[in-house]
Every structure is written in C-alpha cells, then in structure tokens.
Design goal:
alpha+beta, 4 domains, five-stranded antiparallel β-sheet, elongated
C-alpha cells in the first residue's frame, strides 16, 4: 500500500492550480472522488470553521453540507485536539507548507473511520483538506492479502496443474502438480520447454488465441515422450486491451478417457466375445441398407448344444466355446464385415458388397475351421449356419434376415441332434474311464433292468426308456469332482451336498437332447425313495416314475454285489439282505420282490 505522502504527492500542485481558476473550481470540487473540505481561519488559527465540503466529503462523513457550514471543527469534533489535527492546521496556516497526516476519528467512543489527510493553504489563507476514508481500503487490502494466501495455498497444493504462459508459448509459472503431471523433475526444467513444439502431441492441438476462454480436451507429451489426455480450462489475460498471457488449469483425464472408451466399447460390444452386440448390428443394418452396398448378404449362425455344454461341463466351458466361435468368425470375415453376437448362442454377420456365392464360400470356410477347433476332446465345435442375400433395392432387409434364420434352423435340426448324441456318448465314455460307471456295471444293470421290466409287464416304450436309463442315469456325475466320487472315506456333509446335485445335472444334460428328453424326468428321480426320504424332490411311492424305481433297485444291487474303486463288494446274500431291508423305505417293495425272484 502507498504511503500517505506518495498517495497525495502529486495532488497539491494539481488542486492548487485548479482551485486558483475560478471557472474550473465548481466542476472539480463537486465531481472529484477525493473528499475536499475548506476551512476558514478564526481567532488567528486557534480554531477553524467549515466553509464548504464537496459531495465526496458528505459521503465519507455521512452528513449534509448544510449541517456543517459555519460550525467550528472543535464543535463538530470535540476530540479533535487529542489527535493533533488542529496543530497541523495551525502549522500549515503559519508556515504555508503542506502537510499530510493519517488519523482515526471516533464517534461514540469507537473508531468511525481512518483517513489519509493532505492539508495545504490557499492564497486566500483558507485551509484545504484533501482526504479519503482509508478504512475500506485497509479492509480491501486485508482481503487481498487473504486471497493471495489462499491462492498461494491453492496454487501449491492443487492436484490439478495451474500455469501462466506467454502468448507465444513459454511458461511463466507452473505449480508442482503440473510439473508432476508432465513428468518433469522440477519447475525450472518445465519452464524451459517450448509449449507448441514440445508439449502438445501435435502442434495443431494447441488452440489459437481466439479459441481460448473455454474448456477443451487435448493430448500432451510428457517428458518421457508418453502421451496423456488432458482437460484444459484456458483464459486470455489482457492488459491495456492487449493479450498479455494465458492462465489455465490442466487436469489429467487419461484414466477417465480410458474408462469412457471402455464404456463406449461395452455399449457397442458383447463383453464375453468382444464382437459387436445386437444393438450395434441393428444400427449398422440401417446404415448399410442402401443401393450402394448391394449385393448385401446376411449370415445367421447358431452354436449347437451350447446349453448342453453349460449343463454338462459348466458355464466356463460354455464361455470358452463362445469365445472359440468368435475367433473363428473374426478369422473368416473381412474387416469391413459386421460380426455381432445376436443372442445367447446366435451370431449375425452383415456383409456389404458380397454375392451369394461368396457368402457360401465363407460359410464353408467357417465349417472347416470349426472341424479343426475343439474346446477339449468331449466338446466339438459345431455351428449351424444360414444365409441370404439382398440383390435388389425393393427387397426388405428383414425378409433377408428371416430367410437366413430359416435356413439356419433347418441345418440345426440334424446337426444339433448329432452333436448332442456325440457329447452324451463322450460323457458316458468319460464316466467309464474315470471308474465311476464301469462298462461291466452298465451292461449288467441294463440286462437286469430289462429282465425286471419285462417281468413287470412294461410297455415297449417303457422298456426302451429303461434301456436308455440304465446307460445314462448317472450322467450328471460327470461334473462331480473325482476326489469326491472316488473317496474311500466317509463323505462329509458338504461332499453329500455336491453328490446330491447329480440327478439335477443329469436331467439338464439329457433334457437338452431332443431324442433323449423323454427320459429326463426318470433321471431326475432315480434317487427318490419309496418313503419320500430321497432327493432332489422328495417324491414317494407311485409318484416316482417306475423306470426310476427299477433302476434304483438294480443299480444298488450291482453296486453292493460287485463293488467299485471306492466301495468294497460284498456277497450276493449280503446284497439281497440289504435290498430286503430297504424295501418299503428306499425301494418299492413289490419291485424288490420281483427282482429277487429273477435273480
């Protein structure tokens, strides 16, 4: 802040000259912002009377001129003698030399205002006081100091970069955050760089002066050459109506941009296969459905037996099958083709400028690639494919899709059945290889079950179901860990919970095969008990399918009499005794009776 002498050092001559000129006195006196009070000397300088004050003085004093005129200073300010102002008035009156004096005025025993006073004598011997209320100035000064401190704290501790730079492109100042964001060792090192050529990823990325005063995104180069995405709020600072420098805030948004790109990718892509999703496909379909893209071909593909793979081997294997098919599609199609996951196990491909013959060649290529691929030895990669081509503008694109779907469904009728049978056969073989279901047990169970079925006068359809059931009733055990199935020690409670899942799993596997689905309920019920104590549904008596009741008796007998890797065999007599003990509880008593007769 300027000292009093500096503040008014140039005023004496200016006001003296102006006041000496009568023509200008009134205008200057009434319109200048500086307060002016004119005093007439009385009693040879012992007191001074208010002769005139201007509007600025009225505002500072919060009084009207008419209330002061003719009154002495002592009358208006009784305490005036204690602050030395009258002494200064008298000195100026006697010596004719100007003085300046800062004072604080009190009203009601409180400081009412602080002033900077400049006092001089006119040739007419009147005393003139020029003064300003400095209370508000001091308050403003204190507020400025506080703001400066806050700005300094913000500048130094902000996690965003803050800078000032010349219009040409040199840093004037930069805070620690900007130094860190740009990977420099210190501010001095950063300030040396040329912003247009060394900072921006491309020189044209730096906005022109007339394109500042806004928030913009761009790419900057760090010291190590790596590029980051930033958001800059930039402002042109003017001095004397000329651009002086830039000031701005820089925020590193690299992670945010990556997240946005990921969100954008996910909004248009299927997360599992990373192919386009259906929403994107349908938008692209609208875009390319034009005369310029004809012939426009569409392929619809469906993975055979995906549900069976999920049920039999778990969803991780099903996901692997989906990803394998996606890789095959990417390999077989061009970059300009649109490949999308259409639904759970369906895919759709959009092929602009592709003839029907070329589409057939692509379909054949996919089939060949599927034959070469495999998830493991038990899971073949099989896809049913249909296609159609739009060759004229008049043909509705939705009709093309329907034609491709119908062709795909026709293919699926035979291919899916073959794949399902192949998978189930491989599952049965896998059970045998693990020692869970030996070939000898399956054969014996089948023979005994058929003999028992005939003795019970089952129909041919029931006998056929029984035959299939003897081979497949334990198919659900394929997903039970070997360490549980082959465990020789007593099973824990958690082990039993896992074991008891296998009828449901077997039911899911078999139900997915159209030619085996009719025995799914019997597989689900083959561990139900006559008295209702079985699992998984707690069925009892005749509510349990008869084929399930037969398999329960026959399979249990063979397991007891012939043993397994995890269970010692016992004598025929002991096995028979166990069946008798279970009759009416675990087993249908009539079926046990008939079985013992045919043994």
């Amino acid at each position: 802040m300027k000292k009093s002498g500096e503040l008014f050092s140039n005023l004496e001559k200016r006001y003296a000259e102006l006041l000496a000129k009568e023509a200008l006195f009134t205008e200057v006196f009434n319109n200048i912002n500086t307060a002016i009070a004119i005093f007439e000397v009385i009693d040879k300088g012992k007191d001074f009377v208010f002769k005139d004050i201007n509007k600025a003085a009225e505002k500072i004093e919060k009084v009207k001129k008419k209330d002061l005129l003719g009154k002495s200073v002592k009358e208006v300010f009784p305490q005036i003698t204690t602050i030395g102002l009258l002494d200064i008035f008298k000195k100026v009156y006697e010596t004719g030399e100007a003085e300046n004096l800062p004072i604080s005025l009190c009203r009601d025993n409180k400081i009412s205002s602080s002033r900077e006073n400049y006092i001089f004598k006119l040739p007419s011997e009147e005393i003139v006081v020029l003064y300003e209320d400095s209370t508000k100035l001091k308050q403003a000064y204190e507020e400025i100091k506080i703001c400066e401190e806050k700005y300094k704290d913000l500048f130094e501790s902000s996690i965003d970069g803050i800078y000032q730079s010349t219009i040409e492109g040199k840093y004037i100042d930069a805070n620690p955050a900007l130094v860190k964001i740009l990977g420099y060792d210190n501010k001095e090192e950063l300030i040396k760089i040329d912003i247009p050529t060394q900072l921006y990823a491309h020189k044209e990325d730096r906005p022109r002066q007339n394109n500042r005063n806004r928030l913009f995104e761009t790419k900057l180069k760090k010291k190590d050459g790596s590029v980051i995405d930033v958001e800059i709020s930039s402002k042109v600072i003017y001095k004397n109506n000329e651009p002086a420098f830039y000031a701005g805030i820089v925020r590193d948004i690299t992670q945010r941009k990556k997240f946005e790109e990921k969100l954008k990718f996910l909004s248009f892509h299927d997360k599992l296969t990373e192919l386009y999703n259906r929403a994107y496909f349908e938008e692209e379909l609208k875009r390319v459905d034009t005369v310029r893209q004809l012939p426009l071909s569409i392929i619809i593909a469906d993975i055979n037996c995906l549900k069976l793979v999920n049920d039999a081997f778990g969803h991780s294997k099903g996901d692997a099958l989906l990803r394998t098919c996606a890789r095959i599609f990417k390999k077989c199609f061009r970059k300009e083709d649109i490949i999308a996951r259409w639904g759970g196990d369906e895919f759709a491909m959009l092929l602009p400028l592709t003839t029907q013959q070329k589409t057939i060649e692509i379909k054949n290529r996919i089939i060949v690639e599927c034959q070469k691929a495999a998830i493991d030895k038990n899971i073949p990669v099989s896809i049913s494919i249909g296609s159609s081509t739009k060759t004229t503008e008049e043909k509705d694109i939705n009709t093309v899709i329907i034609e491709a779907e119908e062709q795909m469904y026709q293919s699926k009728l035979t291919e899916s059945k073959n794949v399902s049978n192949a998978i189930i056969t491989s599952l049965s073989k896998a059970l045998s290889e693990k020692g869970i279901e030996t070939k000898n047990h399956i054969n014996k169970t089948g023979i005994l079950a058929m003999r028992l079925g005939r003795s019970l006068n089952l129909s041919e359809n029931q006998l056929n179901e029984l035959h299939l059931l003897s081979f497949l009733h334990n198919i659900g055990k394929i997903v039970i860990p070997d360490e549980i199935l082959l465990k020789k020690d007593n099973l824990s409670e958690s082990d039993w919970k896992i074991i008891k899942r296998h009828p449901q799993i077997g039911y899911n596997i078999i139900r997915s095969s159209s030619n085996l689905a009719h025995i799914a309920d019997a597989i689900l019920a083959h561990h139900e008990c006559w008295d209702g104590s079985g699992y998984p549904q707690g069925l009892q008596k005749e509510d349990i399918p008869i084929t399930s009741r037969i398999i329960s008796v026959v399979s249990t007998y063979d397991l007891i009499a012939n043993g397994r890797a995890y269970k010692q065999k016992v004598s025929h007599a002991a096995a028979v005794e166990e069946l008798k003990n279970g009759a009416g509880k675990q087993f249908d008593p009539y079926i046990v009776k008939k079985f013992l007769q045919i043994l």
